[in-house]
Design goal:
The protein is an alpha/beta fold and about 500 residues long. The chain folds into 4 domains: about 5-40, no CATH class; about 50-100 and about 195-360, TIM Barrel, CATH 3.20.20.60; about 110-185, PK beta-barrel domain-like (M1 Pyruvate Kinase, Domain 3); about 375-490, Pyruvate Kinase, Chain: A, domain 1, CATH 3.40.1380. About 40% of the residues lie in helices and about 20% in strands. It has 19 helices and 20 strands. The chain has helices spanning about 5-15, 20-25, 30-40, 40-60, 70-85, 140, 195-210, 220-230, 245-250, 250-255, 265-270, 275-290, 315-325, 335, 340-360, 375-390, 405-410, 425-430, 450-460, and strands at about 60-65, 90-95, 110, 115-120, 130, 145-150, 155-160, 165-175, 175, 185, 215, 235-240, 260-265, 295-300, 330, 395-400, 415-420, 435-440, 470-475, 485-490. The chain has a 7-stranded parallel sheet with strand order 1-2-11-12-13-14-15. β16 (about 395-400), α17 and β17 form a beta-alpha-beta unit. α4 packs parallel to α15, α8 (about 220-230) runs parallel beside α10 (about 250-255) and α16 packs across α17 (about 405-410). The radius of gyration is 25 Å and the shape is elongated. The termini are far apart.
């Protein structure tokens, strides 16, 4: 709503605020709640639904739901709107994990550099002498010389003494202490479980509402991923968010069980010296790609566009390099959730991705390792890409039940288009995450020849391929079985 409509809404708000019967209630609501209360639930939801469909139209392939915020109703609505879109889009549930925070603070509490302060897990109002942190194993898990980061490192403390019921710390970097700020322990090995009771409830919700991916926060080792997989249907893919120092030490075992990884650069920049983050990003992406796993790069990709209509040149370069380094997906967060130009941010991101893909002619065949998970399928995927490159094929056509083969083909970054066909709705959605993949839904067929015939007709009628165009076809036989790819064929369209 703009212009005159905004003025009309303002007039309505003023009138309602002057009504003593409801003004006290409005005072207790935040801006969004007040809007919904005043204007009406249906209109508010309609506007939100339109926004969701708009960003999908601008080029969003996956919608991430952050379960650190919002109600179940909010998330359910977004899932419903995503599924109702005419453009296919996947849904990723990002579970909260353990959130360690400070509590309430006295107004205008400023921590001064070089001063000492007491840290406790016994609930109290924090001030410039004592800080409450809501972690029950604080005293046991944190050692002398360990650092404590508050608010993503805006305030930094170093533990200098352990007492029976408290810690004493030196303030290395001072600053304002506000209510409920996030706390990180980059030097400590915390005993807290990566999966909280809230996460268990949220995972049940996600499973019941047909999410396509689950992103797991604060992953430390393979067991964290295994725990999540035991709680959800096996066809939901699990993404490990790499944001802890200990996860880097365990990246090999994590990749053995996870379906993909997310380079969560925000928390990594707190856990590690910030100048190391670009190299860690490259390391994680290489590790994921060499094993045929999904890779996502996230955090502050278009941070300036929270307020600006244009990105910085540094941001454009950053996104381009993330793609060239092998990211299957690049992710927006605050830019679209609370930014002033969400549609524009998506448009810019989509344009950068398209331009980078169009100009990137670097083959990855020469340095890709065989996947330790599925060596046979990896080898056949490599062969399909090599053949397609050698004969200048119009496309690589893949029939898939799980999406595994298209992912591996995508990892090799072929020059040809990747056109995939599946009969499974979940797989159809999940392939939205993959680089360069166009996915289409087909009915189940009993024979490979029937599938090939349907694909041939589709490419002629819908994709406007010409008779005689060469495509490389990969599939697993017999059809409709979750088996490894075992067939490669060169096919001429119309023959």
């Amino acid at each position: 709503m703009r212009g005159n409509n905004n003025r009309k809404v303002g007039e309505i708000v003023k009138k309602l605020m002057n009504n003593p019967n409801i003004s006290h209630r409005l005072d207790k609501l935040d801006a969004l709640d007040a809007w919904e209360y005043i204007i009406g639930t249906q209109l508010c939801k309609y506007i939100t639904e339109q926004k969701i469909h708009k960003v999908i139209q601008q080029g969003v392939d996956v919608l991430r739901l952050n379960f650190s915020h919002g109600s179940m109703e909010d998330h359910q609505n977004v899932i419903k709107w995503a599924k109702s879109s005419k453009i296919n889009v996947a849904v990723m549930q990002d579970i909260q994990g353990p959130k360690i925070r400070t509590g309430l603070s006295e107004e205008t509490t400023v921590l001064k550099k070089s001063k000492k302060i007491v840290i406790t897990n016994e609930e109290c109002v924090s001030n410039d002498k004592t800080i409450f942190i809501n972690y029950k194993d604080l005293i046991n898990d944190i050692n002398v010389e360990d650092r404590i980061f508050i608010d993503d490192g805006q305030v930094v403390l170093k533990v200098v003494k352990k007492n029976k019921n408290s810690l004493e710390a030196l303030i290395l970097i001072g600053g304002e202490l506000r209510d409920n700020q996030g706390v990180a322990f980059p030097d400590s090995n915390l005993s807290v479980s990566a999966i909280t009771p809230k996460d268990v409830d949220d995972l049940k919700f996600g499973s019941n509402n047909d999410v396509d991916f689950v992103a797991v926060s604060f992953v430390r080792n393979a067991d964290d991923i295994k725990t999540v997989k035991e709680l959800i249907p096996k066809d939901i893919k699990v993404i490990a968010k790499i944001e802890l120092k200990i996860a880097l030490d365990n990246i090999e075992e994590i990749l053995e069980v996870a379906d993909g990884v997310m380079v969560a650069r925000g928390d990594l920049g707190v856990q590690l010296p910030i100048e190391q983050v670009p190299f860690i990003q490259k390391q994680i992406l290489n590790a994921a790609n060499s094993r045929g796993k999904i890779s996502i790069t996230a955090t502050e990709m278009l941070q300036s566009m929270k307020t600006s209509y244009r990105p910085t040149r540094a941001e454009v370069t950053d996104i381009t390099n993330a793609i060239l380094e092998g990211s299957d997906a690049v992710m927006l967060s605050a830019e679209t959730s609370i930014g002033e130009h969400p549609n524009r941010a998506v448009e810019v991101m989509s344009t950068i991705c398209s331009e980078t893909d169009a100009r990137n002619d670097t083959s990855t065949l020469s340095f890709k390792e065989s996947s330790s998970i599925d060596e046979l399928t990896t080898t056949l995927a490599r062969a399909a890409v090599q053949v397609a490159n050698d004969i200048d094929a119009r496309a690589i056509v893949a029939f898939t039940e799980t999406g595994r083969t298209p992912l591996l083909i995508s990892n090799f970054r072929p020059k040809s288009s990747i056109v995939t066909f599946t009969s499974k709705s979940k797989t159809y959605n999940q392939m939205s995450m993959l680089w360069g993949v166009e996915q289409y839904k087909i009915d189940r067929k009993n024979t490979f020849e029937e599938m090939l015939s349907d694909a041939n007709d589709f490419l002629i009628n819908e994709k406007k391929y010409s008779k005689g165009d060469k495509v490389v076809v990969v599939a697993g036989t017999p059809p409709n079985v979750e088996a490894a790819t075992n067939l490669i064929r060169v096919h001429r369209i119309g023959e």
